[in-house]
Write a structure and sequence with these properties.
about 450 residues, two-stranded antiparallel sheet, 19 helices, about 0% strand
């Protein structure tokens, strides 16, 4: 009997699909639904997809539709989606004290885009342990706010919010208005932003920063010494993250300054705080402190751009990733300036990286626009709200202007496809049926004189 061999892409796609189906079946258990509520298969499938794909778009309120058992299932699915099926599979192998096969070793490297020199066991152990520690610390911090307000139920709310924020899921069990009631609460804003940003920069950068802090403190070096000890990748991610957060804050502040339905009536500090939170959540989080349906059109379009970019590589964030977009933009700038090489922090960006960035952006944008057109054609809804919903789905962000709950079955399947593709990566879907073998031209063709521009 011929043994089937799956590529990393195929394993990831099939693994996530199987996890989504299993999650949907669990959510259809009567005990998972609150008394007086009914869960059909489409609702369960949508909720399982948005949980495992750590998106946050919902068709029913998480806090009221699901029982405590159902909410536990949702939280476990979010945690599974944050880690990824490859990570959990690898952890199970480690707990069984078994060695990684060469195929598993290669699969983990491909999934995290790691170099062969990485200590995979140490890396995976650190991903799981450090994630649980940070989520635990986040839950403790939240508890100082939620326990006095909700009593013992506040402990569950704190844990759920912490895991959801760190995994960039954006779901909560507080109420129907996300974090809007806590718009003026500095603690909730700070804790949520810290969890989102920490996971959004990616595990490699996160670990590099922590290690650099330890080395800097040990050797008594200053801020300059800390930054110089980071890898070029970490430095680039930090600079890009700061740029996107600050530029997003500025744009939201400008576009919403006089909007009475969002930040127009707030104090200057309130405006800045809400603008910064919106900039953070645009990147992939899904929580909201202002009504998303009340955002101006310029802010909504800006949000679509930031949702498309997303967070940074090797983390829980969605989007095409910050470094991918930067490489594509920098390559264009280098071409315009007639430069032979593209260099960042004294490191050359290879042609393979440029080609990969171009492919990711092209396929992702093309797939997103396809879903957007289908949404307009089938659901005949507001163009801005539809764009916001689709970019939120494919960017696994979870922000919504209220369109998702009103969608019919066809519309919900469009959003499901967007969330699934966004978590897997649209380019991975294109490679799903690839044999993994590269093909070479048997004939050397002459250069084509095709006209561009």
């Amino acid at each position: 009997m011929k043994r089937l061999h799956f590529s990393t892409t195929q394993v990831v796609m099939l693994g996530f699909a199987a996890a989504i189906l299993a999650g949907a079946l669990l959510l259809m258990i009567p005990a998972a639904t609150a008394p007086g509520e009914h869960t059909d298969f489409i609702t369960a499938l949508f909720t399982a997809t948005t949980s495992i794909c750590v998106t946050g778009l919902v068709v029913v309120d998480t806090f009221s539709h699901w029982s405590l058992f159902g909410q536990v299932i949702v939280l476990l699915l979010i945690q599974l989606g944050g880690f990824g099926v490859i990570t959990l599979y690898s952890v199970v192998i480690m707990l069984m004290h078994r060695r990684f096969s060469l195929g598993t070793h290669k699969m983990i490297q491909d999934y995290y885009d790691l170099d062969s020199v990485f200590d995979l066991r140490g890396f995976l152990k650190r991903v799981v342990v450090d994630t649980l520690i940070v989520e635990g610390l986040g839950a403790v911090a939240y508890a100082f706010v939620f326990v006095p307000q909700f009593g013992l139920r506040g402990l569950w709310i704190s844990l759920f919010n912490s895991v959801s924020a760190f995994c960039n899921a954006g779901m909560d069990v507080i109420g129907p208005d996300s974090l809007i009631p806590y718009r003026d609460n500095d603690a909730v804003n700070a804790i949520t932003c810290a969890l989102i940003i920490a996971s959004g920069i990616g595990y490699i950068v996160w670990f590099d920063v922590l290690d650099s802090i330890k080395r800097t403190r040990k050797n008594g070096l200053g801020v300059r010494g800390f930054f110089s000890r980071l890898s070029p990748h970490s430095r680039l991610v930090i600079v890009l993250t700061l740029f996107l957060l600050l530029s997003g804050t500025l744009l939201v502040f400008i576009f919403e300054y006089h909007n009475p339905d969002t930040i127009g009536t707030l104090s200057l500090w309130g405006k800045l705080r809400a603008s910064f939170f919106q900039s953070v959540t645009f990147r992939t989080a899904g929580f909201a402190t202002v009504p998303q349906a009340s955002l101006t059109v310029p802010t909504s379009i800006t949000g679509c751009v930031y949702m498309f970019i997303g967070g940074s590589p090797v983390g829980t964030a969605g989007g095409v990733k910050t470094v991918t977009m930067f490489v594509a933009v920098l390559n264009s700038v280098s071409f315009i300036r007639s430069r032979d090489e593209t260099v960042v922090f004294s490191r050359r960006i290879t042609s393979e990286m440029k080609n990969k960035a171009t492919a990711i952006i092209t396929v992702s944008f093309g797939f997103t626009m396809l879903l957007y057109v289908l949404m307009l054609w089938i659901c005949k809804t507001d163009p801005v709200a539809a764009a916001y919903e689709i970019f939120s789905a494919t960017g696994t962000v979870g922000l919504s202007q209220g369109l998702t709950p009103s969608l019919d079955t066809a519309g919900r399947f469009i959003v499901i496809a967007g969330m699934y593709a966004g978590r897997i990566g649209p380019i991975s879907m294109g490679l799903f049926f690839s044999t993994g073998k590269s093909s070479k031209n048997l004939i050397n063709f002459a250069d084509g004189n095709f006209k561009l521009g």
